[in-house]
Write a structure and sequence with these properties.
565 residues; mainly alpha; five-stranded parallel sheet; two-stranded antiparallel ribbon; 26 helices; 7 strands; 65% helix; 4% strand; globular
């Protein structure tokens, strides 16, 4: 075990060797492979409520308005997140239309680029190709990585840009290369365009902590190199300055005030505000490589590369644990260093157990065991939520078990076990992606938009729970019914309820403008109230239902459709 207190210097290579002359295309193949596999069946995955639909609907409205700078939703500026995610969705929609494939394409591509960059960064960091492949594969098959790459949210882009900052900041500090440091600041600028100030503040804090731990006081000044700051400003600031010039303090108050300061100090979801929240997320997100990560942490050498990775991994978790609002995706970027520790765990496992009789049994527990746990757990959940797919899930489970058993019978190498486990997990992920459509439809308004035709004059209302995805798929404006016209007092309700609102009295007033309809027209309502299945009983007992129903019968406007969302 080394006890290096200096930043590890990059090993020199023999430039005249055939290996040095040969172009390494591994990063390209790893990235392309990830994109191809993870794109499978994305066209079957509808945009879901309540998070994905806001991004998709905003990007759709920006395309239709021809305004690619100001995010709009329901005809109003929307300052929830910066512009980068919307730009990616806009590009995909312009190429492939408003399709489910287009919605998920940018995130998957960002995931593939992340895997490629992981390989390049780890290889340059450790000068070990096999180690870099392991780190890339492990990170790219973490359960949370697979999930986020398929999601229509901001986090995969933040992950990619944070990775660039993670690697190039270290290279710049280690080698005192201004070019690398500027690249780190460039990635941080893109992160700020995607997620806001946290894209710079969090990496900056972690880098300062790292230098203090390493007692590299002199490099603190180099960290804030003027050229790096200029690069950051050129990339990140123009859009923010444009938005401020156009929308003034309203933009600053909504974006920096509500969605940054308030989010950090007042919990949006109080039930999640518990100290162990991210411990649970950490266990789930690292599947199926939990044991390898823990083993790698145990045997990590005390040199700058592992200390740096540990500062990032634990620093990210600690930072967000101190925030009032907690989301499962916030600590996602910690998977970057944990991928490195997973590769280290695999390497050390092979070195310490290769050739031993018990190695295969231990490999089952270390590598194959968590994979089986993940697969069995998801199969069980899938059979509950989608019983019709039960036979497919069971057959897939049998195939995966057979694949791992074959590995156990034929192979002793830990790296061989990694290959078989990775293959098993990727096969399972692909099968799951092919079956997710019906399950995700329960969280989406796509089926509702397709099942209920409306015309331009139709009035559409949602009781209690709004579906932005219905608006995205139907292209029809809808309103959220509220019992009162009194303004909301909850700060998060005020900030999030940007959709059109209506009281029962306001709805009846609009209905009064419609002429009575004939019996034949009764079959094709002009007014709809959509109610989720679990709210139907409550709605039918409400005063709102009685008043609206009586009015509908009197005016011959059938207006209530209790369709389950």
């Amino acid at each position: 075990m080394t006890t290096d207190t200096e930043l590890q210097q990059e090993p020199t290579t023999v430039t005249g060797s055939n290996e040095a002359k040969k172009r390494d295309l591994t990063a390209l193949w790893l990235g392309l492979g990830t994109i191809i596999i993870y794109l499978l069946f994305t066209w079957l995955l509808p945009v879901t409520d309540p998070v994905e639909s806001n991004y998709a609907l905003t990007a759709r409205e920006m395309v239709l308005r021809g305004d690619y700078m100001t995010p709009y939703i329901y005809g109003h500026p929307w300052f929830d997140k910066p512009i980068w995610t919307y730009w990616m969705l806009i590009g995909a929609y312009n190429l492939f239309g408003f399709t489910d494939f287009a919605s998920r394409l940018p995130g998957v591509i960002a995931g593939g680029v992340s895997v490629s960059l992981m390989y390049y960064g780890v290889k340059r960091l450790f000068e070990d190709r096999k180690f870099a492949i392991s780190a890339s594969v492990i990170m790219g098959t973490f359960f949370e990585f697979w999930y986020i790459t398929h999601a229509v949210i901001t986090d995969q882009y933040l992950f990619l840009f944070s990775m660039g900052t993670f690697f190039y900041a270290y290279f710049g500090l280690r080698d005192k290369k201004v070019k690398d440091l500027c690249l780190a600041y460039a990635f941080a600028g893109l992160a700020v365009l995607d997620k806001g100030p946290v894209g710079l503040v969090l990496p900056g804090m972690l880098l300062i902590v790292f230098l203090l731990v390493m007692k590299e006081w002199r490099k603190l000044l180099f960290l804030f190199h003027p050229l790096g700051l200029i690069v950051f400003a050129v990339i990140a600031l123009p859009w923010y300055l444009y938005m401020y010039s156009l929308h003034g303090w309203g933009f600053m108050d909504a974006f920096l005030g509500l969605h940054n300061y308030v989010r950090a100090t007042i919990s949006e979801h109080p039930r999640f505000n518990v100290w162990y929240y991210y411990i649970v997320i950490w266990i789930l997100s690292l599947l199926p490589w939990n044991a390898l990560v823990v083993y790698g942490l145990r045997y990590a050498k005390r040199d700058s590369r592992y200390i740096y990775s540990l500062v990032w991994a634990l620093g990210v978790i600690l930072f967000y644990s101190c925030m009032a609002t907690k989301y499962s995706t916030y600590t996602y970027i910690s998977l970057i260093p944990f991928g490195i520790f997973g590769a280290l765990g695999l390497q050390q496992w092979q070195l310490r157990h290769e050739g031993k009789t018990v190695a295969r049994w231990k490999s089952v527990a270390m590598i194959g065991g968590p994979a089986l746990f993940l697969i069995i757990a998801v199969v069980g959940a899938g059979m509950v939520y989608l019983p019709s797919a039960g036979i497919v899930l069971i057959l897939t489970l049998i195939a995966v078990v057979a694949l791992l058993w074959w590995s156990y019978r034929k192979e002793r190498s830990a790296y061989s076990w990694q290959r078989y486990t990775t293959a098993a997990v990727l096969v399972f992920f692909t099968v799951i992606a092919s079956l997710l459509g019906p399950i995700m439809s329960n969280q989406s308004g796509k089926a509702l938009a397709e099942a209920v035709p409306v015309n331009e004059t139709s009035q559409v209302y949602f009781y209690k729970k709004f579906s932005a995805s219905y608006v995205y798929y139907s292209g029809h404006i809808a309103s959220l019914l509220r019992d009162t016209n009194k303004p909301a007092t909850n700060i998060w309700t005020v900030g999030k309820e940007v959709m059109p609102l209506a009281t029962p009295a306001e709805m009846l007033k609009e209905m009064d403008k419609l002429p009575p309809v004939t019996t034949e027209e009764w079959k094709h309502p002009s007014v709809y109230i959509f109610v989720q299945k679990n709210d139907v009983a409550e709605f039918e007992k409400s005063h709102m239902y009685k008043v609206v129903r009586a009015y509908a019968v009197r005016r011959r406007h059938p207006c209530i459709r209790s369709l389950g969302l």
